[in-house]
Structures are given as structure tokens and as C-alpha cells.
Design the sequence.
């Protein structure tokens, strides 16, 4: 190996040795029996008055949100992502768990993990905020909204969101919805945004402009709640990654409710399926031959 | 009301006459599981059958079995196993220790997602060293932010299949690569063995187990998503055994790094 590689190896080894003993962090830590520091403040003295949502936002951004910001963020969770419906794919995990008499936390944590889905949940949410920023950047560079959307809509998709081996969120994320094109959450969330005076933000306006253009380009794509969630948070200057952190637990209210409900039902009573519910389309019956 | 159906091209069940919710027979790709396969099939043959819908050849079965042994226990220092052990040490539910192992071992650094990316690379670059070279460069560019739409996965930060923190290829990796190459019915493992040092020079990193596994999965004909699943699955035995051990040993004898936290110090 060349001298350069030797030097690189030396640096790598030094890093490994250094990191084996220390974890430098500005996030915080526990001083046993004394205090807990959290981004430079005392959790027990400086932050103990915060609501749970304020603390979540503080952990993400390092800033304590204003009361009306907090109301918006909590409202986004309550209105948009807290359906106690056990048929929804992530909620179903908690339902199946407690109805199979696993623990609620195992079901809830698995349900949260499952919320990183492609047709709903975290992946389209992140894609949507990224899409909105992307479109805004292109507009700032002088491009035309209709042209941007047409180019995206007519681009060859490497994959589909709904099925296939390489699924990814839709080309125009945040528009269109599985099961129904109508999004009943839209009005309540917009009402909340208005109440909090966040209804005139630049990215929210962009979302409406996109919706108008799509009526001509792809009328089947109606704005769904992901666009409103993403636009409202973008107007609060959240980056896509911060938005991801923000939504990471947003389904937990509905998932918890489903876990509780299914635990009260008779064990094994959640839509048991008979054997003939399996629609088989594989190889015909055959005999195994030992090698 | 439409009748809910589960569509499957590899699993079927006959209902028992007494109760339609109880099977009298289950079939995997046409084979009767409890009558025919149970006395005749090995665990890895059954795994292969479920994923590929066909029986493996003797050579494929031997390779998958050897790969399963190589992957079964990454050892207690591995992050995924440590996650399972952390659950064990704290007395958490045993299920949570496996969830922890899968969650941690799913990632881009030595984890299942890296294996899927590396498997995709094999599909794209095959046994062409020049294509691998430009492919690695693309990954470096991607690391610098040249990516498409934001996603839950961050872009991989190193050449897939190689250990960015390693200084030389571990003897255990070389032994695994050599043995798997010898028994493989296909040519990717052998090509990797032949070009390992070239690729290590390109990436400034030694080959990792994720890279060996990806080549083995390609030699077995698995798709990236199948490789990702199998890599998670095959590494669980070690995580489970280590978690049980720490569960019994308890938290006092598990590393806590009491003096390790440097609060208020920026991450350099």
C-alpha cells in the first residue's frame, strides 16, 4: 500500500481508539443523582414546564416553540395522523399484536416502524416536503410551475408506489390518496392553521398553486394531508430531515388506541381468515425429490 | 361484501373439514410441507424454496448453508448484536431484543440495507472492474448531497460492501470469501476473491462481510430485497443467544461507558 494509504489507516485506527472511550455530544446526558442536561439546558430546572410536543420540537431544532407553533404541531398530529382504525396498515400491527396477546409496546413500536411506508406515512411525507422545496427553488430560478409539474408528471418513473420490487413515493408526492381521493382532514387542519395565523405562508400558497395546476395536468391527483402537513412545517423553516424527525412518532396516538382496543377484544378475534382466503397462483402440487 | 383474500404464489392451504380456519395441509410452492417436506428438507433448502419458489441445487444449498453459518453470529461487538444485548441487559422483553437487532442491523453500515445496495451494484456492474470504479465514485458524489428525493434512508456514506473504518481485510472475511468462492455454483464470489485488493484500493476500505454476503446472494440468484431480508434473518441467531446471555448476566456486567459521555463537546 502507498504511504498515503498507510497514513489513512493510521488516522482510521486513531479514530477507532479515540471513539472507543468517548462520545462527544451537544445533545445532553444524565448526571446520575444530579441533573439531566438537554441541549445545554437543565431538563429538570429549565425545561420542566414544557409540554411534550415542545420538548419534541426542542430536541429536533434546539429551539423552544412559541405557544401557537406548538398548537399547530400538536394539531397536525391530532388531526392528520391519529386515526384509531385497526384496518390501516400501521395501526393493524398494534391491533394484531395485542389481539394475539403480545405486549402493547411491542405492537406500538412495530406499528411506528411500519409507518415508514411508501403509500402513506413517513416516506411520502418526507418526499412531499422535499418536493415542495424543490419546486420553490425551481420557481425562484425563474422556471414555470406548469412546466415543472408537467415534466415531473410525464417523467418515466423508475418505480411505482403501490406495487412492485422497487417501490418509492409518487412522482408528485402529496397528491393522490389510496382508498379515497377525498381527504377529510384538509378543512380541520386548514382551520387550525388559520386559527394559529399560519394560513398565509409561502409554501402553503405554493401547495395551493400546485393543486390548481394539477387540475389541468392530472385532475385525479387531489391534494392530500401530507402536502398540508409538509407545507405548514416548511413555512416554519423545518428542513426535510427535521420534518422526518417531527413525524417520526406522529402516528402513535392512533396506534396506541388500536392496541388498547384489541386487547379488550377476545384473543384471536381480529378478522380471522379461513384457509380458503388464500388465493394461490403458484406451482401445481408436486412431490419433493431428495438431492 | 367482497371476500378478503390473500394473494400468494408460493403458499397454499387446504381447510380441514371440521373447521375452515384450521388447515389440513399446507403447501409451499406445491410441496406438502408437513407430509412431504418435513421429513425430507433441510432448513436452508426450505428457506431457498420459500424465497425462490424452486428447490435449490445441491451446490446452492451448500452455499446458502455456509453463508448462514458465516452470518449467524456477528459477535457481541457488532452493533446489531449489541442492541439485542442491551435489551437483554436491561431485562427487556425477549422480542424487543430481536426487534432491536433487526432495527440496528438494517442499516447502511454493515447492515441489511447496505447488502441490498451492494447486491444492486452486482446487478449493475457485474464482473466489470471499470464499472465498479465509476459506481464507487457515484456513491462518493451521492454522499456529498447529489441525491434525488429525500427519504427515510440517508444516502450510503461509503462504498457498499466495504468497511469505511477498517484498515485491512479481516482474516475472518478472507476465510469466508475463500470458502464460499470454492463451493459457489456461480462466478461473482470467485471474481470478488480475484479482485478484492483492487477494489479495496479503489475504495480505500477493506472488504466487509456485507460485501461477501452480497456476492453470495447474487451467486444464489437472489434479488436485492431478498438479500436484504435474508441478511437480517440469518444474523438473528447470534443476537438471540447473546441477548439471552446478557439477560441472565444482568446490567451490572454490561458496558455502560460511565465516563464516556462528553456533554457540551461538539461532534468533531
Sequence:
Amino acid at each position: 500500500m502507498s504511504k498515503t494509504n498507510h497514513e489513512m489507516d493510521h488516522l482510521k485506527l486513531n479514530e477507532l481508539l479515540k471513539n472507543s472511550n468517548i462520545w462527544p455530544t451537544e445533545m445532553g446526558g444524565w448526571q446520575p443523582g444530579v441533573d439531566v442536561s438537554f441541549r445545554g439546558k437543565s431538563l429538570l430546572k429549565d425545561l420542566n414546564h414544557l409540554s411534550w410536543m415542545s420538548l419534541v420540537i426542542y430536541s429536533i431544532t434546539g429551539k423552544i416553540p412559541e405557544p401557537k407553533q406548538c398548537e399547530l404541531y400538536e394539531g397536525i398530529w391530532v388531526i392528520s395522523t391519529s386515526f384509531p382504525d385497526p384496518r390501516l396498515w400501521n395501526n393493524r400491527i398494534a391491533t394484531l399484536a395485542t389481539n394475539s396477546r403480545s405486549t402493547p409496546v411491542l405492537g406500538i413500536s412495530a406499528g411506528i416502524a411500519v409507518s415508514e411506508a411508501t403509500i402513506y406515512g413517513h416516506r411520502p411525507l418526507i418526499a412531499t416536503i422535499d418536493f415542495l422545496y424543490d419546486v420553490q427553488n425551481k420557481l425562484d430560478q425563474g422556471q414555470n410551475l406548469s412546466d415543472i409539474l408537467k415534466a415531473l408528471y410525464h417523467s418515466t418513473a423508475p418505480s411505482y408506489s403501490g406495487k412492485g420490487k422497487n417501490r418509492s413515493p409518487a412522482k408528485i408526492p402529496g397528491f393522490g390518496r389510496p382508498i379515497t381521493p377525498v381527504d377529510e382532514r384538509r378543512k380541520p387542519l386548514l382551520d387550525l392553521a388559520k386559527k394559529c395565523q399560519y394560513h398565509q405562508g409561502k409554501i402553503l400558497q405554493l401547495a395551493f398553486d400546485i393543486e390548481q395546476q394539477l387540475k389541468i395536468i392530472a385532475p385525479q391527483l387531489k391534494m392530500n394531508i401530507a402536502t398540508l402537513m409538509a407545507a405548514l412545517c416548511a413555512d416554519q423553516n423545518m428542513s426535510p430531515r427535521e420534518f422526518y424527525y417531527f413525524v417520526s412518532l406522529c402516528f402513535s396516538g392512533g396506534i396506541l388506541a388500536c392496541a388498547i382496543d384489541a386487547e379488550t377484544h377476545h384473543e384471536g378475534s381480529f378478522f380471522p381468515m379461513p384457509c380458503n382466503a388464500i388465493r394461490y397462483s403458484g406451482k401445481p402440487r408436486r412431490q419433493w425429490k431428495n438431492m | 361484501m367482497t371476500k378478503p383474500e390473500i394473494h400468494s404464489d408460493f403458499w397454499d392451504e387446504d381447510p380441514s373439514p371440521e373447521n375452515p380456519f384450521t388447515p389440513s395441509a399446507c403447501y409451499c410452492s406445491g410441496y406438502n410441507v408437513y407430509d412431504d417436506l418435513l421429513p425430507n428438507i433441510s432448513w436452508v433448502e426450505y428457506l431457498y424454496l420459500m424465497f425462490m419458489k424452486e428447490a435449490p441445487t445441491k451446490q446452492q444449498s451448500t452455499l446458502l448453508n455456509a453463508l448462514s453459518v458465516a452470518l449467524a453470529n456477528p459477535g457481541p461487538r457488532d452493533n446489531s448484536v449489541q442492541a439485542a444485548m442491551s435489551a437483554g441487559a436491561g431485562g427487556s422483553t425477549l422480542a424487543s431484543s430481536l426487534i432491536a437487532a433487526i432495527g440496528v442491523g438494517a442499516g447502511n453500515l454493515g447492515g441489511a440495507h447496505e447488502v441490498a445496495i451492494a447486491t444492486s451494484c452486482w446487478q449493475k456492474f457485474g464482473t466489470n472492474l471499470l464499472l465498479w470504479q465509476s459506481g464507487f465514485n457515484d456513491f462518493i458524489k451521492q454522499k456529498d448531497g447529489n441525491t434525488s428525493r429525500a427519504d427515510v434512508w440517508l444516502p450510503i456514506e461509503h462504498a457498499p460492501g466495504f468497511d469505511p473504518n477498517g484498515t485491512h481485510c479481516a482474516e475472518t472475511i478472507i476465510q469466508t470469501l475463500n470458502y464460499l468462492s470454492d463451493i459457489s455454483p456461480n462466478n461473482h464470489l470467485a471474481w470478488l476473491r480475484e479482485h478484492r485488493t483492487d477494489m479495496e484500493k479503489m475504495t480505500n476500505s477493506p472488504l466487509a462481510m456485507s460485501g461477501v454476503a452480497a456476492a453470495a446472494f447474487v451467486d444464489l440468484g437472489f434479488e436485492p430485497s431478498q438479500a436484504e431480508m435474508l441478511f437480517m434473518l440469518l444474523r438473528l441467531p447470534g443476537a438471540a443467544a447473546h441477548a439471552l446471555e446478557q439477560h441472565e448476566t444482568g446490567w451490572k456486567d454490561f458496558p455502560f461507558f460511565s465516563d464516556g459521555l462528553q456533554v457540551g463537546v461538539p461532534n468533531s
